[in-house]
Every structure is written in C-alpha cells, then in structure tokens.
Amino acid sequence: MTNILIVVVVILLVATLVQILRVSELLSEIKNKDVNEVTDKDNNTQGILFLIVGFGFLIFVVWQMVTWNHLLLPPASSVHGTQIDFLMKISMGLILVVFFVLSPILFYFLYKYRGKKSNKAYFFSHNNKLEVLWTVIPTIILTALIIFGLKTWDKAMNVELTESTTIIEVYGQQFNWTARYSGLDNNLGKANFKLVKGRNTLGVDMLDANAADDKMAREVHLVIDQPVLLKFRSQDVIHSAFLPHFRVQMNCVPGMTTQFGFTPTKTTAQMKESEGEDFEYILLCNKICGASHYNMQLKFIVETQEEYDLWLASQENLETKLLTQK
Amino acid sequence: MSEHHKENFITKYVFTQDHKMIAKQFLITGMFMAVVGMLMSAIFRVQLANPGESSILYNLLPGAWLNDSGGLNPDKYLALVTMHGTILVFWVLTAGLSGTFANFLIPLQIGARDMASGFLNMLSYWFFFIATVVLLSSLFVETGPASGGWTIYPPLSALPQAIPGSGTGMTLWLISITLFVVGSLLGGLNYIVTILNLRTIGMTMQRLPLTVWALLITAILGVLSFPVLLSCGLLLIFDRSFGTSFYLSDIIIGGEALHNEGGSPILFEHLFWFLGHPEVYIILLPALGIVSEVIAVNSRKPIFGYKAMVGALLLIAFLSFIVWGHHMFMTGMNPFLGSVFTFTTLLIAIPSAVKVFNYLATLWRGNIRFTPAMLFAIGTVSAFITGGLTGIILGDSALDINVHDTYFVVGHFHIVMGLSAIYGMFAGVYHWFPKMYGRMMNKNLGYLHFWGTFICAYGVFFPMHFLGLAGLPRRYYSNSAFPMFDGLSDINELITFFALAGAIFQVFFLFNFFYSIFKGTKATQNPWKSNTLEWTTPVERIHGNWPGELPVVTRWAYDYSKPGADEDFILQTEPLKEGEIEH
Ligand code: HEM
Ligand SMILES: [Cu+2]
Ligand SMILES: [Cu+2]
Description:
The complex is a heterodimer of chains A (326) and B (583).
Chain A lengths: L1 H29 L9 H28 L11 H34 L15 H30 L8 E8 L2 E6 L33 E3 L1 E5 L4 E7 L4 E5 L4 E5 L5 E5 L5 H8 L5 E5 L11 E7 L1 H9 L4 H7 L2
Parallel strand pairs in A: 1-5, 4-10
Antiparallel strand pairs in A: 1-2, 2-3, 5-8, 6-7, 6-9, 9-10
Chain B lengths: L8 H6 L4 H31 L24 H37 L7 H20 L30 H30 L12 H32 L10 E2 L2 E2 L7 H35 L6 H14 L15 H29 L8 H23 L2 H7 L3 H31 L5 H27 L19 H31 L64
Antiparallel strand pairs in B: 1-2
Helix pairs in contact in B: 2-3, 2-4, 2-14, 3-4, 3-5, 3-6, 3-7, 3-12, 4-5, 5-6, 6-7, 6-8, 7-10, 7-12, 8-9, 9-10, 10-12, 10-13, 12-13, 13-14
The structure holds protoporphyrin IX containing FE and copper (II) ion (2 copies).
The site of one copper (II) ion has 6 residues of chain A, from loops.
C-alpha cells in the first residue's frame, strides 16, 4: 500500500514539475525571451549566492571544529604518538590556513567578477613570473613538511629493541583477537598454522623451548613507560590492529609477521580521570575482514609495574594450559 | 550531406559506430548506474543512522539481505558498500565520464569525422554493456554480490568461507571487471590514436583544447595501468578456482587449514594500487579538462597559463605511477619504502596547487556568466581545494598511521575524487547538452540542482573528517559496538540527513535531462559563444560531423575577450588578423 502511495506521489510531483516548466517556457515565449539565457540578473543572484553559501560553508566548517572538538581523540598516550600529534598540529594548521585563504578568494572572485553584458573580461593568458611564484612557494612548504614527516615516521617505525622491551604477540582471526605474552625469557615460541588444534588456538610449537613459558591472554596489560613490541599474525584474512589512543596501527597479514613498537605514557587509571570513568584503551580491527568486522575488539590496560606483575603472575603458562589439562 | 549514411534504428541507436551516439550510450548507462549506486549509499547511510532498524528503503533489497526484524544483515551492508564503490569508481566516474566525453568531444574538438576506428569504439561500449549486465546480475545470486570492499583484497575476496559474497558474487565481479577492462582498453587505444592522427589541418598539439589534452593523458594512464588490474584479477581468479597460491598462505578458515603456502596478499595490494592510484586520476583528469574549458568559456577569458596547465597534467600523470604505496603504509612494508612513497606522494601536491592557482587566475577580472555548467565547474574547483588539502595529511606516512582506513580517508576521497569528478561530469552534461541533443536544459532547474547538491555534499563529506579524527574506522556496519564512538551518533545522523536530501536533488537533474531531450527549448548553433570546433557543426546530429569540408584551425581555443576583436570570442577557425599575434 505505502509503495503504491509513494509511486502516486512521485508521478504527481513529476507531472507538476512538467507543468511548471511548460508555463514558464510559454510565458517567456510570450515575452519573446529565451528562458535559458543567462541574464545579468542571474549573474547577480548567483554571484551573491556564492558569496553567501561559500562563506556559509566556511562558517559550517568552523562550527564543526568548535562543536565536535571534544569528540576527537585525546592527546596521544605514547612517546612517538606525541610527536605525531605535533606534526599533525602543524600540518592541520597549515592546510587550514591554505583552505581559509583559497576558498574565500574563490567565492569572492565569483561575486566580484559576476558578469554583465556591458562588461568585458581582461585578456590575461599567462604570466611566467606568477607561475614560478606559485610553483616555488608550495615546493618550499612541502619540502619542509616532507622532511619533518620523514623524521617523525622514522622515529615511529624503527624501534630499537632494548632489554626492557616486552614482546607480545597479537593474533587476529574472524572475529576476535588473542594475545600471547613471551614469558620470562621474553622470547615468543615459534608458531605454525598447521599446529592450530584444540586449545592451541595460536598454533604454538610446544617443542620450541621458548614456548613453554608463553602466556595467552584475552586482554593486554602494559606497564607505563616501558617499551613494548607488538608482533602481529593473522589466521585467515587481513585484519588491521588499530590502537587509536596510542597512534598505533599495523595490518595483520596471513603468512607473515608484522610489528609495531611503542611506549605507553599514561595509565588507564590516569585516562579515566581525564576522559571519564568509561574510558578504556581499545584495539579495534581496521581492515575489512568479514561480517563482524565492526565488532572485533581487544582491551588494553596500562598500569604500574606492581599491578602488572600481579596480573601476569595470575596468568597460566602455555605449557600448563596445553600439556597438563589435556 | 555526402557523409550522411542511410541509417536504420539498429545502426543508429544500438550497434552504432557514430562516436556521438556511442557517447550518449555511455552517458545513459553511466547515469543509470549512478542511480543504482546512489540508492545503495542511501540505504547504507540509513543503516548507519539507525543501526539494525528496518527502513522503508530496504524494500528495494532482496528479502534474503534482511534479518527477521527487517534490519540489514552485516555482511550485506558490506555488499552494499562494495558495490557502491565499484559502481561509482568504475562504472560512473571511469566509463560514464571518460566514455561519454572522450567519445563525444575528441572528434568534435579536434576536427575529425569520427574516431579512428568506429568499430572498435562500438565494441568498447558493448563490452562495457555486458560488464554492466554481469555486475548487476551478481546482485541477485543467492549468496549476494562481492562484499570485500571495492579494493577486493584477498584472502577475504578469495575465500567464500570468509564472507558469503566471495562466492559466486565475487566470481561475477571478476568476470565483469575483466570485460570492463577490455572495453576500456579498446576505447583508450582508440582515443589516443584518434588524437594523435586525426587532428584537422592547423590543430597542432599547442592548440588543442585542454579537454582533449586531459582526455589524451587519461587514456594513456588507462592503457598503461588497466592491464595490471587485469593480471591482478586473473591471478585472483587462479587462486580462487584453480588452487594456485599467488596471494594465499598459511590460512585456516572455517576450521580447515588450506594447502596454500608461500603466497602474499601484499603482492595483490601492490598490483591493485599500481592501477588503483592512476585510476583516481583517470577519474579526475577528464573532469579537470572539462572544467578548464567551461571556466574559460564562462569567464570569457583565456584559461590562465595554458602551458603550465598541460605541464601540470603531465607531471600529475607521471607521478601518479610512483605513489601507489601510500595506500599501503600500514602493511608492514619496509619503513624506508614508506619514506619514498611519502616523498613522491607529497610532490603531487605541487602540480595540483598550480592548477588551482591557475583556475583562480582565470576567474580574476573575468566577466563571469553563471550557467549551470559554470556553477558545477566552480564546484569542482572548490572540492579540489578542500579535498586535495587533506591528501597532504594522508600522504605523510607518519600521520597516516592514525587516520589510515578511518572516515578521514572516506571524507578525503569523496571530496577530492567523488565530488570533483561528479561535478565535472555534471558541468560537462549541462555544457554540451545542446550539442548532444540540439536542445537546452532548463537553467533554473540546473541552478536548483547545483545548490542543493553543493550544500548537501559538503554536509555529507566534511563531517566525515571529524569521525576519522575521532578514530572511527570505515566499513563498519554499526558504531555501537564501541562505547568510545557513542558520542558520534549525532554526526552520523546529520550525514545521513544530508545524504538523503542530496539524493532528492538528483531527481531534479534526471527530470531536467529527460524532459529537455524531448521538450527542451531548441538550441542555437553556438549557445555559449565558445571558440572550439564542436560549435561549428550543425545543430542536428549528422554522421561525419561537418557537412562539407573539415574546418581548418588557425588559432588556439582560448581567444576570449581578446583586445581588438568585435566580439568577446573568436572561433578557432577564424584566421589571424594581419599583425595579430597568437595569444
Ligand atoms: C594532493 C594530492 C593527494 C594526496 C597527497 C593524496 C593522498 C592520499 C593518500 C595517502 C591516501 C591513502 C590514505 C589511506 O588509505 O590511509 C589517499 C586515498 C585516496 N585518495 Fe588521495 N591524495 C591526493 C589527491 C587525490 C586525488 C586528486 C584523488 C582522486 C581524484 C584521490 C583519490 C583517493 C582515493 C580514491 C583514495 C582512497 C582509496 C581507498 O582506500 O578506498 N586523492 N590519498
Ligand atoms: Cu576487521
Ligand atoms: Cu592514491
């Protein structure tokens, strides 16, 4: 019923439009004018509209920046993330300046040079000085951005392994994450997809001496100010481990291991204080991976060394888990 | 009328070899697909505003896509996103845009009677047509159409166990794209050969309108990059159907360990983006070409810096082949390689900036006439500024860490590619409609269409940047699984509101288009007072374009408001006056 009603309404609307067009065309025929000719009056209206709507758009942009500012991610909770935030501020500032200069120029020109039949445009076909100017200036600015960007990238990606770096594996599969701690030896035991069986959901090779003290976990605990190296694997399709608060992201690709190292700088408790009681660090999936891609999460908790030690001690070794309980 | 062959209905409208008719076939098919693609986006936007709830729009979908309570199934949400992307990127903005305007404008603007090979040209459309039928048929297979994103990354796209759409739907997708690529290659080769060989006397490369330059460079990009997509797709077909392991390795799916070892999904990404990045310029450049022409004509001024504009096009085209890695910063590629791609990517901003400055300089001290085409051309410039700038954030690998695959990217490419190109396409349709159909489109409806679209489109895509900066990933069926995104539902509702409103304004365009084909006021020969050759042909369509001799070109395309001339335009066929220097 509703469908028929909709069809009827649409047909009526179209019929009305046809009639309106017809009438307007007939009217102008009577007045011996061409409806579709762009008149000075049209130019005037459209020029003014560009000024109004154009600046309306810029105001809309400012409004969004003000109203939604509190929704954006809080400042980074990691060492390299703070540098990324700084670079982001500079780059954002820069493009905003360019945006707020070029857009008004565009809208203003449209208004200012709206045409009149009696006017004539100024014949101005090229000017090499201008071309050079506006090639060189962007080049200089971009060179600076590139250099700054590459430095930040280099620092973020090339982590040096130190004694105190904890190695943790994050393993993605449709549609959940599992973590594996490397244990006292801080070495992850080897793994192979062919060994995935029963409780050994990560396919860890228990014959490898490094594997015995590994620990599997459904949430990841980290120690504040201690570097950590995350190693990523995937069981089935590509996933992407995304930790927005730490400015960390890396794809998890079946058949290879990827990694990302960082140092957290704020505990969950501290974040709860500034961001609200509900705050949690979350790892989300950021590569389309199937129907439940939208709900694939892993909780991260940053805490003090003591809290961490307590938690870790409560976690079972893989050896106990896999070999004794079977 | 010597060139006017006898035509019957079939040779005139169906298996036509006339470039003008083929252009219209591409246009109408493209418009049809645009409506399909737009409806899909309306549907998934409704889902994002009211996750899990039912909606009257869902009546358009096969019943199996919905759950018992009438809500959309998560995997079918992904199917919609995938098909929307595929349709808009390839069907509307590649075939619909290039196919229409390359076919229509190249012979007319260079002074040729038709394409170099009318037959290949016809084949090119019919390959495209069959590709369209195959793609649409995939909507009706039981397991649904391809659902792995328009980028169809394996293993997701290779394994039916991973998502139902990767079954028959994906097979049809691959067949369809293969046909599509064949069609584009036939078209592209034809465009290149035509432009290089069939220019009329006096039409030197330096006198080509920028539209033709843009279409030439686009065709070259296509011919160089589409074959890579073809091979990329073929290898995927092998992996899917013949047990090879190009892209697959170490996989357990549905509880079963696959035999594949040694392949790499990253190889697929490299091949895909080697086409994928040039592809975005295949979409953009024709639009920029159209816009250059429309802005010059309606500012009544020469395009500023013609040579710089051509140079910028060439540079963009060249660079677009060495930046593909910026889509893959987070794949675990060697950080040094990432640095190289950051470097080349940010370089593209330079010729892009030059183009924007030249457009602004063209408008400066013009005598601007706001035809509907002009409004849309300006829309392109505005969108290109807004969206190009966010590219500078994304291109910086360090910053991309946190915005990659978020809504920030969705905002970026919809504005810089989606809006710029679709506005350019609208500009082209409004501008050349009189040449295509011998009638005018209604001006006031055109104005209404523009303002509605312009306002709604920014209302849809600008807020997406904020979603991205809040950390929201793209391709999420719903944002309700994470408490951290609860605050974003207002933004999502606002976006959906603008999306639906924007869709309604497209009805005015469709109405105007079809109404004007039959009932529009009659066009005169040169309604916009342009210089280019297409406006020297008769208003009625004839096979062969010019009734008598081909026109002879004596000047460039941009002598608008030239001092010393009586009118504010001078046809390209007008000989130089004594002592007159060419611009
Ligand atoms: C100033 C120039 C530009 C730069 C530096 C730039 C940079 C980028 C980067 C780095 C990405 C990847 C983001 C990510 O996935 O994390 C991207 C995505 C994209 N860009 Fe641009 N871009 C520019 C202009 C353009 C233009 C002109 C177009 C099209 C006409 C375009 C279309 C796209 C598309 C379609 C995507 C997303 C593809 C996808 O993942 O689905 N960009 N851009
Ligand atoms: Cu996912
Ligand atoms: Cu790209």
